[in-house]
From TrEMBL:
Domain of life: Archaea
Domain Cupin type-2: residue ranges: 38-109
Name this polypeptide is given: Cupin
Record has Metal-binding as a keyword: yes
Keyword Metal-binding: yes
GO terms for MF: metal ion binding
InterPro entries (UniProt xref): Cupin_2 (IPR013096), GPI/OXD (IPR051610), RmlC-like_jellyroll (IPR014710), RmlC_Cupin_sf (IPR011051)
Key words, A-Z: Metal-binding
Organism of this sequence: Halorubrum coriense DSM 10284
Amino acid sequence: MGYRVVDVDSVDPEPDRPCECRKLSDPGGLDAAAINRFRAAPGEQLPLAYHAHETQEEAFYVLDGTLAVETPDRTYEVPADDLFVVDPGSPQRAYNPADADEPVTVLAIGAPPVSGDAVPYDPDDE
């Protein structure tokens, strides 16, 4: 058996991100999923770019605030305590709108925990 408690605020934020991103998989000893906590001020986006994952499923659980997720078909508004799920191959860009009244805090889970499978998406190419 194994158990771990991770003080999320003790995990250093990732450098060069558009918002605060704390990668929690390694401190938590997770091998089967990637887990990150994002905190975005108004006008900040979560990912580095509008993208899709080739094999990874993603789930965004909104802890507080309201997350906006742009997709090719529409922009979703995801309030606190709701979950937004993205299938592999589905382009998305998650962000906190510039006119938001507060930051948004999101727990993002991806499985499998792959790196390098994100494919940039440009809506103008449609």
